[in-house]
Amino acid sequence: MQRVAVGTGPLTEADVVAVARDGAGVELTPDAVAAIAASRRVVEALADDVEPHYGISTGFGALATKHIPTEQRALLQRSLIRSHAAGSGPEVEREVVRALMLLRLSTLATGRTGVRPGTAATLAALLDAGITPVVHEYGSLGCSGDLAPLSHVALALLGEGIVRDAEGTAHPAADALAAAGIEPVVLAEKEGLALVNGTDGMLGQLLLACHDLDLLLRTADLTAAMSVEALLGTARVFAADLQSLRPQPGQAVAAANMRALLADSRIVASHAGPDCVYVQDAYSMRCAPQVAGAARDTLAHARLVAGYELAAAVDNPVVTADGRVESNGNFHGAPVGYVLDFLAIPAADVASMSERRTDRMLDVARSRGLPPFLAADPGVDSGHMIAQYTQAALVSELKRLAVPASVDSIPSSAMQEDHVSMGWSAARKLRRSVDALTRVLAIELLTAARALDLRAPLTPGPGTGAVVAALRETVPAPGHDRFLAPEIEAAVELVRSGRAVTAAETALGAAVG
């Protein structure tokens, strides 16, 4: 089994995907264990101090002014976790919970939180054993961290609450820990707070979305190229010298992809001469690199922010390098919330352009010779008419999801927490956006493949032709109307798995960037 080392340095996006999605194990490095132990000594030195220290000898939030006697401090930490494990609604996906567990472990490993090494080791043991606490959809305001989601994870460390084992079966946490040989944690001073005061849930979802959108934007170049071919569009507008007149980096990448995919296309060559009557293509074809390129640049910015967050130690209070224990505001989720919202905008716009190309292929007045709705017997057959309806419904949903969550704030904790980020909500809707974009692109791919087959005997380029061939392994060639939903799902899987892009890359002998 692959293992990811968690040390005092930052993790990578690939590390998070490996643990969250692929089930990789984790191990704390010796430097992390030493850093954790050093900060714990600072906390223990303050435990008996007559001066109050937030999170060690005081209550939390608006109750921070209450001094907690020594004999009640273990109860204080346990009570914090139990009361804050107040999530509601559907279960959050396993990969999201594993991502937030890993990222919380990463912050513990920085030696800035004051937990004991054994507490961090227990969190690592849960990840290794594939034990995933049940976390619920609602409960985080994205400030003071993802409190409710992380509290449900911390509750499992105590042997309480409900978890799922590696096979996905639900068990009481005490039973699952016992079966895995993991001893529940009895929390000491500061530890409860250190386990829940982080932006790990929203960051984990940002990293997973970045990983997925990277693939989807490469897929968008692919489906756009297939549609340009199917609609007898020109490849001349994607020329490098034209694109360089507007030196946006993402645009250059997208245009280069489309040039490669349309190279050696007999369909494109068939109307490339001076007698071609099609003077200009519609914006959804001609401007594809500009839109997909801007989406790439937005993704690059989001990854920059995610990189800063991966290098962060988000907790309150923190143990500083010189041994102070200080309150701070680093738990505020605004930096992550903003880019989560930002990414939902290009996801909606790339999908909108994809749907417009699909509609154009189905409209006999604009499809340049294709049959109405690509139907075998128009009138008797409806072809892909309703597939476009499904696409339109998805695009409409994407537009609603592009409305930002991070502009909202509802004060909480008796006005102590009077401005919150709503970053968790931004993360949840971005996950829906990523799924919807996947489906929109899949329907364009399915439709464009059918249109390309109908252009026979002319043949598409090697890259786009390889994608059609990959689709035909599970979806038959054009014919009379069939049950269409399974064919759409086959195309969705071709896109989501990356097999569509891989097919094109194999045929081209080069990466689709």
TrEMBL record:
Listed InterPro entries: Aromatic_Lyase (IPR001106), Fumarase/histidase_N (IPR024083), HutH (IPR005921), L-Aspartase-like (IPR008948), Phe/His_NH3-lyase_AS (IPR022313)
Keyword Membrane assigned: no
Pathway: Amino-acid degradation; L-histidine degradation into L-glutamate; N-formimidoyl-L-glutamate from L-histidine: step 1/3
GO biological processes: L-histidine catabolic process to glutamate and formamide; L-histidine catabolic process to glutamate and formate
Pfam families: Lyase_aromatic
Any one GO CC term of the record: cytoplasm
Localization per record: Cytoplasm
MF term (GO), any: histidine ammonia-lyase activity
Record keywords: Histidine metabolism, Lyase
Entry's EC annotation: 4.3.1.3
Highest taxon above the source species: Bacteria
Catalytic activity annotation: L-histidine = trans-urocanate + NH4(+)
Assigned protein family: Belongs to the PAL/histidase family.
Protein name: Histidine ammonia-lyase
